[in-house]
């Protein structure tokens, strides 16, 4: 636990399930005030709000689609109106869909890019705007992926969005470091989340994934949430512009393990 996080205000996008939900709850455990978010599921939002409160934090829920500028503004405004500040912007929301690249329509491409890349930018931009105008040394954390580094056939829109997030993170970090605003990213590998549930329910599919992980196991969402808490805290006060891969070694070219190659 990080004592300096107690009472700080965070927005966590895409926090009705998976990694976002785990991060929101972990922020609650840190005693933070959390704006949880989802695009349409008010029931799930209410459940996460209660989980955050039970964990020891304060929370409110906002239905918002981060690909829409007015909805992004609503998220930031809610943090300020409900809790009086914004200290941590956790840009977690993202979508993916498998489509062979030669069959991908412009609509397919735009849907993923508008949420994953443009939505992340708008959230980061609006949060930083508030921090600059209020002389606040806040933190922005973007959710990237191992696929900011590892090519992923049939997911060119997703991989492109995550590669963009990596460079966006570095550029914003460099631009706003003189203001004391830190910008970092988390790049998860194979994590046991609802989006992966079907794949991991097949023993052969899961075995194939585990073979790509040098540490030999699929992580739980809480293992990513702990990294979000670290990056949000003063323990990481000299860390900016970093994409921290939480991947059990997936980005280390596992095919070369044990001297192969």
Automatic annotation (TrEMBL):
Enzyme Commission number, as recorded: 1.1.1.47
Keywords: Oxidoreductase
EC top class, as a word: oxidoreductase
GO terms for MF: glucose 1-dehydrogenase [NAD(P)+] activity
Catalytic activity: D-glucose + NAD(+) = D-glucono-1,5-lactone + NADH + H(+); D-glucose + NADP(+) = D-glucono-1,5-lactone + NADPH + H(+)
Pfam hit, one: adh_short_C2
Keyword Amino-acid biosynthesis in record: no
Subunit record text: Homotetramer.
NCBIfam families, alphabetized: PRK07231.1, PRK08936.1, PRK12826.1-2
Family: Belongs to the short-chain dehydrogenases/reductases (SDR) family.
UniProt protein name: glucose 1-dehydrogenase [NAD(P)(+)]
Organism classification: Bacteria, Bacillati, Bacillota, Bacilli, Bacillales
């Amino acid at each position: 636990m990080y004592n300096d996080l107690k009472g700080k205000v965070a927005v966590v996008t895409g926090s009705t399930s998976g990694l976002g939900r785990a991060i929101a709850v972990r922020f609650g455990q840190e005693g933070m005030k959390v704006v949880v978010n989802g695009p349409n599921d008010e029931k799930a939002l209410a459940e996460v709000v209660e989980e955050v409160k039970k964990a020891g934090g304060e929370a409110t829920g906002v239905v918002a689609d981060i690909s829409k500028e007015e909805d992004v503004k609503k998220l930031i405004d809610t943090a300020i109106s409900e809790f009086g500040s914004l200290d941590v912007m956790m840009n977690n929301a993202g979508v993916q869909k498998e489509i062979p690249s030669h069959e991908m329509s412009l609509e397919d491409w735009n849907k993923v890019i508008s949420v994953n890349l443009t939505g992340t930018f708008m959230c980061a931009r609006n949060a930083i705007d508030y921090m600059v105008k209020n002389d606040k040394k806040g933190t922005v954390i973007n959710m990237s992926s191992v696929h900011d580094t590892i090519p992923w056939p049939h997911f060119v829109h997703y991989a492109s969005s995550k590669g963009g997030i990596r460079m966006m993170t570095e550029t914003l970090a460099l631009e706003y470091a003189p203001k004391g605003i830190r910008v970092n990213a988390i790049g998860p590998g194979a994590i046991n989340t609802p989006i992966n549930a079907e794949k991991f329910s097949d023993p052969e599919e899961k075995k194939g994934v585990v073979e790509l992980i040098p540490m030999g196991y699929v992580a739980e969402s809480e293992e990513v949430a702990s990294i979000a808490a670290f990056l949000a805290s003063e323990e990481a006060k000299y860390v900016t512009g970093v994409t921290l891969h939480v991947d059990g070694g997936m980005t280390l070219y596992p095919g070369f393990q044990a001297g192969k190659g």
